[in-house]
């Protein structure tokens, strides 16, 4: 299934789930589970948003290149048409229609060109110019079709991004509706569950289980060290935010991208794409601090902090934190620079 199709399906499903009203009879444990599930779903929708954004940006670049080429090609066609307009048509026996005009208006320019050549109505130079013009027109038509297709795909991706954003917001609103039905003491317990931070619209909280001073940066590459130092500077400070790529707010892939940018390494703003960056590491037994760890089926990514810990932007309600990897689903990929 393509990223576009999967993300659109996810967005629709999340929006439908979020439409249900919070049950006022939820137990505290049920409230904790639902709020955490809503926040995780919102974070997954955010990664789908990021993926669509990456694709949309790539398509925009393609459209820009095509538009530049179309403009160049059109100028070439115009120049060749003008040149043909100056060619005498004495050899055209009928004498009533200029070959250039006939070719330009003909529904079958190839047939006209073949017929005119066979009847010696065009000389070699005219044939060459008309053949060149015909090729230029065909190229121009192809480029226009490609541009139209790319623009259509870009519009679909923009719509998908809106759906993913709406799905995330709906999930967060659902989580907040649950919190609103609890007492302040219960809200605090729910927000503390599993390290969760404040509710939607509240100040996010730190959930670090390791201090930055406990991270051992020895024996790793200079790129990994630079990236880790950048990420460590945001622990407990920068909150999670949709599409956040620093310096003050982050989502999971945004933090990894921003951190490695300090080492001069350009990464995609998309956790699924992080599965193929750098060099592969065989297993967690071989992992080093600063390695990029993709988890949750590809929906989450962070930097390895050592001792089974992940430095990451976890989800809504959190600031950048250092958390046990056991908080998250299985490891999908480990990549190293």
List the helices and strands and how they pair.
Layout: H1 3-18, H2 28-85, H3 99-105, H4 109-118, H5 124-180, H6 184-192, H7 222-232, H8 252-261, E1 279-280, E2 292-295, E3 300-306, E4 309-312, E5 321-324, E6 331-336
Question: Can you walk through the features of this model?
Answer:
This protein is α+β, with helices and mostly antiparallel strands and 337 residues long. Helices cover 53% and strands 8% of the residues. It is built from 8 helices and 6 strands, in the order H-H-H-H-H-H-H-H-E-E-E-E-E-E. The protein has helices spanning 3-18, 28-85, 99-105, 109-118, 124-180, 184-192, 222-232, 252-261; strands at residues 279-280, 292-295, 300-306, 309-312, 321-324, 331-336. A 6-stranded antiparallel β-sheet has the order 1-6-2-3-4-5. Strand 4 and strand 5 form a beta hairpin. Helix 1 (3-18) crosses helix 2 (28-85), helix 3 packs antiparallel against helix 4 (109-118) and helix 7 packs across helix 8 (252-261). It starts with a helix and ends with a strand. The model is unreliable at 1-22, 87-94 and 194-202 (pLDDT under 50).
Give the structure's gist in a few sentences:
The chain is α+β, with helices and mostly antiparallel strands. Helices cover 53% and strands 8% of the residues.
